[in-house]
Structures are given as C-alpha cells and as structure tokens.
Amino acid sequence: MSIDNENPYAAPSETSDLASDSLYPNDLATRGERFAGALIDGIIMLPVVLGAGMVLGFGMVAAGIDPQSLAFQVLASVIGGLLGVAAFLAINGYLLATKGQTVGKLVMKTQILSDSTNSLVPFGRLVLLRYVPLWIASAIPFIGNFVGIIDGLAIFRENRKCIHDEIAGTKVIKLRG
C-alpha cells in the first residue's frame, strides 16, 4: 500500500482483496455439502413430480389415449418434462435468481457463483447453461439414464465440479457465517 507523497492524508492508492473475499468467499463446497443439498432438493421434488405424473397419466387415460401406445409415451415424456421444469423453477426460481441457491443449497449454506467473476450468475444464463443441457440430455432414450450418474460422478475430480458446472462456468462455494 502506498500513500500519495504530496498529501499525507490521502487515501491509500491500492485496494485490498478483503472486501471481495468477504462478499464472495472462494471456499469450494465439499462433496458432502453438495450431495446433501442435491438430496434435499430431490426429496422436495419427489412428491411434486410423482403427484404431477399420476395426475398426468390418469388425465391421458381419461382422454382415451392408450397407455401402451407410442403417443402416450411421447406425450407423457414431453408434458411430464415440462411440468418437472415448471415445478423446479416454481420451487427454486426466486432463490436461484436472487441468491444463487436452491432450497437444498440454502439449507446447506452453499451458493452458485460464476467461476470467472465470483459473482452471482444472471438467472437466464444460470438456467440455460447449468440446467437445460442436462434436462435435454436426460430426455434422450437410453443415454439419458446415464447422464445424471456421469454428471454426479464428475464431482470426484480435484476441482469438485460436476459437468453442469463446467458447461455453465460455475462453482459452488460454502458461505461463511
């Protein structure tokens, strides 16, 4: 830190990194914290998705669509997927947009930040890059069954990032306090 030689009362000319460190700590969340947050999110989503799926299935049968038909399978996948996305965003959208957190991350005191700027990721970019690619890949027959497993196993690398973090340029940090 240097002081202006002409004015001994001048403010220091160099800035400290302490302010940014306290606002956006760089401590990565542990694998356990990330797993627990995802588990909490899954437990919250499970009854919503199962309930919506049952209502959708009964509604399609009541509409006369044969449950054994390809049309039933395609409609159930597309409509069910859209309902799942809507439920996820209804439950987590506000927290993602304002705090970079899902309910599980809020409970676990972790947060999603941009890997390059250590700041919150704009909501649209966060959803489009972090979630949509995996939602689409998961909908692909056969391959989709393995997408979530591969994404989750990537966390065992040194940087503790899942594939969706790599795609979106994000990281999950633990919050202080």
TrEMBL record:
The keyword Transmembrane helix applies. It holds the Pfam family RDD. InterPro entries: Pra-immunoreactive, RDD. The keyword Transmembrane helix applies. The chain crosses the membrane at residues 35-58, 70-91, 134-156. GO terms for cellular component: plasma membrane. Its main location: membrane. Signal peptide: none annotated. It comes from the Bacteria. It is a multi-pass membrane protein. Keywords: Cell membrane, Membrane, Transmembrane, Transmembrane helix. Residues 29-169 form the RDD domain. It is found in: Cell membrane. This is RDD family protein. It comes from Novipirellula herctigrandis. The lineage of its organism: Bacteria, Pseudomonadati, Planctomycetota, Planctomycetia, Pirellulales.
